[in-house]
Amino acid sequence: MNAVTGSLQQISMQDTLRDHPSSMLQSANCLLSFVKLVQCWICQNVDARKLTNEETSVAVLASFSKSPQRSTRRMSLESGISRTSLRQILTTQKWLPYKLQLLQHLNEDDPDRRTEFAEWAKQKLEQDPQFTQKILFSDEANFSVNGEVNKQNHRYWSDTNPHWMDPSKTAGTTKEMVWCGIWGTMIVGPFFINGNLKATGYLKLLQDDVFPSLCTEAGTFPEFFQQDGAPPHYGCQVRAFLDEQFPGKWIGRRGPVEWPPRSPNLTPLDFYLWGHLKAIVYGVKIRDVQHLKLQILDACAGISPAVLLSVCEEWEKRVALTIQHNGQHIEHIL
Question: Quick one: pLDDT at residue 23?
Fold first, then answer.
């Protein structure tokens, strides 16, 4: 660009001296103004304006390779390269921002128990391809009026998935506990729980709300009932009630089918429903508890049967992967 500018300036001065010696200064000023216009046009239209040249790209990728958790905002401040140019370089080189995954730590015997459960589920699926749709999966989750844990600012830039994980549990603040179930193409609930959930309250919830809501016009009923190993689920009265309702066919802690502990990736409510609901619920600013409940109800009502069928297929995929990976975590390969 400097060479072009110099040539234009030289030509303009020579022409002025030869043809218009009496008005040299005026003509020179006019031509210099023209040169500035040419420079502006070059800056707006010539590839030289692009920062994302090969040398810059190499430097940017080297920097992110050294510090892959650095944000594009911080990189822009340190390098002087615009965030738009940084994103263009990363996108061109097929580098992606991977999210942090929060995982529970597995104890020594957990993989064996997870594998045992997955092999049981696989056998059931071989006997009955519709088996997944005959299970009532259940779980509870806390929703906060103030929002949820935000992982959006955690990124790891790389050209390959680094399987970035954090084996820790998140904590909440002000909570509203919600019970929900997935049974085939149906959402069961949601039911809201006042205060802390104990075994007596959980039993009352099952007796008064959950099971009465399962009555259908076709007279069908879930063949299996699944719950995790949370303390309220383990009460003697709760287990006795489930033995009556689902003799030999309920899944849980010390149930006829043992539920593997620390396995949220094997229940559709954890790997799909809660995340989906929170994404919708917190799409607007929650005013109060009543508004929160209405948001949850509307979000549940908006889930289609087709989506729930896909969720069932995803569960079957996770069962197979759990067996393939000997009961270890599978989120990083999904």
Answer: 53
